[in-house]
Amino acid sequence: FELRNEDLKDLQELGQGNGGSVKKVEHTPTGTMMAKKIVLIDAKPSVRKQILRELHIMHDCNSKYIVSFFGAFLADPNICICMEFMDKGSLHSIYKKIGPIDIDVVGQVALSVLEGLTYLYDVHRIIHRDIKPSNILCNSAGEIKICDFGVSGELINSIADTFVGTSTYMSPERIQGAQYTVKSDVWSLGISLIELALGRFPFSESESDDNDSDLSDLEGTLSPNRPLSMGLPPPRSSRTPKTPTDKNTPTDKKKDRRKSKGVSLQGGSMTMSILELLQHIVNEPAPRLTPEGRFPKEAEDFVDSCLWKDPEIRKTPKDLLKHPWIDQARVSTVDVEAWASTF
Ligand code: ADP
Ligand code: MG
Q: Helix or strand or coil: residue 80?
């Protein structure tokens, strides 16, 4: 059927993100519940039409690991994207509500995300570009699916122009301006899995050995679609331990603040924190599933494989589907449906 805005009844606000807001709506002619994402885009009509054409590919993305697509339309000045409503919400909102997520459930998340990424790439040559807990959704049938992948180059560009910046799930090579590859999604998956298992964003507090301040509040402040190399100094060798003198010197701060103007970030101190976090990702050892021994060895090893800083060494989603932890997840008896019924 042809989707029309007049046929959609607003029911409830589901959340707000970088690019717009998401509402639960009912498609009244059919009684179907949907999630309607409203993206405000400052672009010419020709670009908007191009975006709509590009979004059409989503009709062909059919996988049980991908949130399904009902259609998209223009509702000036917005673009509306209607998708399957996932009644248990995102893994982000779930862990915020219930705390750290059981590692066996995290294993099912890893399996589902890898299957979804492999499907998108093998069948459609699509790279997700925005893997994070708020783009991994769950429903009361116990299904785990990914959403918000980068099908439309024009949409990616328009959002990047409007909401400048980067996300903290971004891989070291992306921060340094390298091409996006499926392996960048694998990095983001590794960070997301640690966040779910620990119940907190991994780049925060105890992570660092000095008073680096809490970096978790930067999550999602910026959008992940543009390289940010212009705001950053050249990388230091990735395994060099930091010394009190090579970091946070007044000169560094001044330089960073000046350069960051080019990417028009928000306030002054916030800007510093974002750049510090990005530098941290580039320069410091990757986070791990810790403390050692708390989680199964296979889970620790899987996360380590996602978080190789060198994308040459890091595996693809398809390779990682063969990892022992994923083999275990496939035969696991964990009941995600029962788990989801507890919140
Ligand atoms: P972000 O992903 O950065 O949080 P979005 O605008 O993509 O921002 O989404 C906002 C929120 O809406 C998400 O965090 C999620 O909780 C909710 N949401 C998005 N899509 C759906 C969906 N299909 N079903 C249910 N909830 C959704
Ligand atoms: Mg999203």
A: strand
User: Is-contact 90 137, C-beta < 8 A?
Assistant: yes
pLDDT digits (tens, 9 = 90+) for 276-325: 899 999 999 999 999 999 999 999 999 999 999 999 999 999 999 999 99
Is 94 a pocket residue for ligand 1 (Cβ < 6 Å)?
no
Alpha carbon of 148 to ligand 1 centroid (Å):
9
Give how far Cα 266 sits from Cα of 45, 221, 279, Å.
Answer: 28, 9, 18
Label residue 199 left, alpha or beta by phi (over 0 means left) and psi (-120 to 50 means alpha). left
CA distance 185 to 319: 13
Q: Looking at ligand 1, which residue's alpha carbon is closest to its atom 16?
A: 90
What is d(CA 108, CA 282) in angstroms, rounded to the nearest whole number?
A: 29
Please indicate whether residue 135, judged by its CB atom, sits closer than 6 Å to ligand 1. Answer: yes
Token pair recorded at residue 211: 């008073």
Read off φ and ψ for residue 75, nearest 5 degrees: -135, 80
Beta carbon of 86 within 6 Å of any ligand 1 atom: yes
Q: What is the pTM of this model?
A: 0.84
Amino acid identity at 107: G
For 77, the 3-state DSSP assignment is coil
